[in-house]
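Re: the multi-chain job from yesterday

Posting the exact lines I submitted so nobody has to dig through the queue logs.
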Amino acid sequence: MHFDRALTIGSSVRMISPDSKNCAETPEALITRIAGTRDRAAYATLFTRFAPRIKAFVMGQGMTAQEAEDLAQEALLNVWRKAHMFDASKASAVTWIYSIARNLRIDAARKAKRVRELPEDLWQGDGDKAADEQIVDTQSAQIIKKMLDALPPEQKDILRLSFYEDLSQSDIAKTLSIPLGTVKSRLRLAMTRLRTAMDGKSTGVKS
Amino acid sequence: MSAIHHPGEDLLWDYFRGALAPGLRLSVSTHLDLCPQCRDDLRVFTAIGGALLETTEGVAMSDNALDLALARIERPVDLPEVSDAPAPARRPAFLEGFELPPSLQSAEIRGRYFVAPGVWMAPIALPGEPRAAKTYLMCVKAGMEMPEHTHRGREITVMLQGQYRDHKGLYQRGDFTQCDEADDRHMPVMMGDVDCLCLVAQEAAIIPKTWLGWLLKPIARI
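And the result, structure tokens for all chains:
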């Protein structure tokens, strides 16, 4: 069995250059094949490409290797089961997969918290936004990806700490030893730039 | 008509990463139901996450991971898929005529009680909410005054119907506002001839930890 470039020592998440990826077939095409013909080979390719990344991602956010491995398995199983709901003409596959993994991680965290605090039978879902309500089209995903590279390093750092380490803004301020206001304004600048690039509208007052 | 007062990026971020307490979470998701602009912000978050996932160097899965994955997709789905549609909530009669966003249609809204003439509150039961936190719907009849109140800790209001004005401007359906103890200038004035309905989420008040604190509690109105 082969996993692409799965050699990471320690839990730090590193970036790889885009040209080192093996993108023979787009993830959109793979998911479409899964939906169409329950294509196991397409699933194996998708699994090999994304499970190690999901594992790395949620380990960076504080999950143990075993929890992260289970979550990656669960996320890809969800991709298999929900493939028919994926519309390649509307959505970017990688953001869709990311949303599935993100929702699983949030659910796992909440469930763990509730099991500690409440008897299990009191636990119930609370009707949060489903993953597919945050559909990002392929073009927007490409724009954001390109814009991310072009952001000033100090804004990029805020986003990296936010996403890779799952930190709140006050924790980021502590980590970087900078005032909270600076973190807020950097994130705001980054978001304004990305939002404007994505759809070019931004008005209103932030409270 | 779309909202002009929005949650800050810090709150949206905490919502996105699932770190908000239930009451705050419900307030943000209610605002999101009514605000395309903030939904766009979440879409940007999702796109950033996707882009970062794509460029993340993976951590090796265990040796049998792919075999396990391929075996799992052959198993029949034993548990019924959890329905995406929230269970239909019993909707109290006093809410007839109000247009509630989806986030509140599945909420468990309890009986209302009047706190002043023309002003009622209806608590919302949220699983996992800290005991001292309060989340409720509040309705102020058109032409009535807002009751005098103080803020203990962070308090969030999302307008659902009607309008009011304060020192920060005019608030209408979808508008989101956050107050804390420092906001002693908060003197909302109801506008127009439509009843005001809003969702209010109060964070848990700080509970004194010392005997002296407990003795002073009634005086300090904590």
